[in-house]
Amino acid sequence: MVAVGTSFAQENPNGFLASAGQHDGPIPHFEFSTDDVARADQFDAWRHNFATMLDLTPTGNSPEAIDGRQVIWDLGCLAFTSISTGALNFAGLPGHVRGDALDHWMMTLFLDGGASTIAGQRSFDGGAGTVQLHSLGQPFDGHVTDSHMLMLLIPRDFFQEHSGALSLAEFSTLSGGMGSLLADYIIGLAKRLPTLTIADLPGVAAATRAMILACITPSPDHLDEARAPISNMLLERARQYINANLYNPSLDNDMLCRELGISRTRLYRLFEPSGGVMRYILHRRLVDAHSKLADPTETRRIFEIAEQRGFNDGAEFSRAFRREFGYSPSEVRSRGLGAIPARPVADLASLEPVERLGHLLRRLQS
Questions:
Q1: Nearest 5°: CA angle at 348, between 347 and 353?
Q2: Rounded distance, CA 315 to CA 317, Å?
């Protein structure tokens, strides 16, 4: 086990460094350690901490206890975390199992230890110095040893039209010179975060986006597996078509099948991890509505925004919106809950430590 030192996080007894109004203050970070939990409850607390993105199960002779520590940095449009953990098993659950549409990429750099992953027909390993890329919208499982890692959690909207590049590299270890360059960047970011301010976040986001796009290329082994890249590209075409036709009331399974030239069965399989095509369309319409509601220049009534996105009943829209984001459409306007890219907000400070990561990931989804 390698502890997270002060080179990665400045100590703060409350874990919160800046409020939403401090635009030139330090970037907020939050800490959680199982040292603060009774031994018999440690693994349950550690599992709950990651429940939004992974299902964890114990290994070894003492399943109730685990040595774990996490520091979360709220980068507004990204989440960055340093994690030290004991050995455990993990599984990524698709959205229809979790009950949400969380579909972030999980980019992990191991500083110590390593992990093995199986995703469908693909398996890959990674140890110290390697970067791995997982998709939280797809099922996978694996095992991690006693490890210290740095992790970027990246919403798909962070890349928009360039997301196909990351889709091709999903479930692989990024190796070679460019993989090492990306690892160096992630380590450098971890070391610099304590010295940066909220005002630096737009530059951090732009540099991170450019570095990832420059360094990620599909490996030969990845491209040799023809079915996976073809499915990924079909899925990306479908996502782009959905986004381009989001306000079309006729947008449905049949319309997508005609556009892609595939059967309903093939389309269902593409979107099965997201809970189906119509669930994904609903999610994208709600995300788009969230963005409009957060725009201070948008003066239309909430019902008008909802109606443009296929909701003919205001109460139905409010219920669907609250299920997706955990708050109402009117709260987006009254509290200024911004869209990507967003500044950090103080809402994480009021939560229990084991709730913060999940809340941040759900917020990034919007």
A1: 150
A2: 5
d(CA 19, CA 163): 32
d(CA 175, CA 178): 7
Q: Which amino acid is at 216?
A: I
* Secondary structure E strands in 171-226: 172-174
User: What is the biggest distance separating any 2 CA atoms in the chain, rounded to whole angstroms?
Assistant: 60
- Can you tell me the distance from the alpha carbon of 260 to that of 332, in angstroms, rounded to the nearest whole number? 35
pLDDT band at 68 (very low <50, low <70, confident <90, very high): very high
pLDDT tens for residues 177-201?
788 888 999 999 999 999 999 888 8
Q: Which domains does the chain have, with CATH numbers?
A: 29-218+345-365 (2.60.120.10), 224-335 (1.10.10.60)
Catalogue the E-assigned strands of 253-317: none
Give the Å distances, CA to CA, from 27 to 185, 202, 205.
18, 12, 13
pTM value > 0.90:
no
Give the pLDDT score at 86: 93
Alpha-carbon distance values, 334 to 52, 64, 153, 327, 328 (Å): 27, 43, 28, 11, 10
Rounded to the nearest 5°, which phi and psi values hold at 67? -95, 105
- Alpha-carbon gap, residue 330 to 321, rounded angstroms: 10
- For residue 363, how many C-alpha atoms fall within 13 Å in the half-sphere facing its CB? 25
H/E segment holding residue 85: strand 79-85
Inter-residue contact 53 to 101 (CB < 8 Å): no
Cα–Cα distances (Å) from 145 to 2, 64, 116, 170, 252, in that order, read 12, 17, 9, 21, 44
Helices (H) and strands (E) in the chain, counts: 14, 12
Per-residue tokens: 304: 């008008």
Question: Averaged over 154-159, what is the pLDDT?
Answer: 84
Note the pLDDT tens digit of each residue in 210-242. 888 888 754 444 444 434 545 666 777 888 889
Tokens of 275: 């809970």
Return the bridge partners of 32, or none: 70
d(CA 77, CA 59): 34
CB 358 within 8 A of CB 23: no
